[in-house]
Fold this sequence. Notes:
Layout: E1 2-6, E2 14-18, H1 26-42, E3 51-56, H2 66-84
Parallel strand pairs: 2-3
Antiparallel strand pairs: 1-3
Helix pairs in contact: 1-2
Amino acid sequence: MLTCCRAADPGPPRVAYAIGRRAGGAVDRNRVRRRLRHVIAAHEAQLRPDWQYLVGVRPEVRRSTPDELTAAWLNLIARAHEDAS
């Protein structure tokens, strides 16, 4: 899941993560967050300045490969920007 909107204050893009307990224990949730941060950082050019993003995950994301995470992120960001325009 990805939600985005214009930030109230101008600046670089901001990304927050919503990873609930259904995604596993603290170790699993932190691992998922690190994997997501890596994917998003690799595609930072896709993020718009002055925007903020909230990334939510489902429990099955723990079993996703890096390629699956990347494909999902690129799909989500493209759809979010298309809807926001």
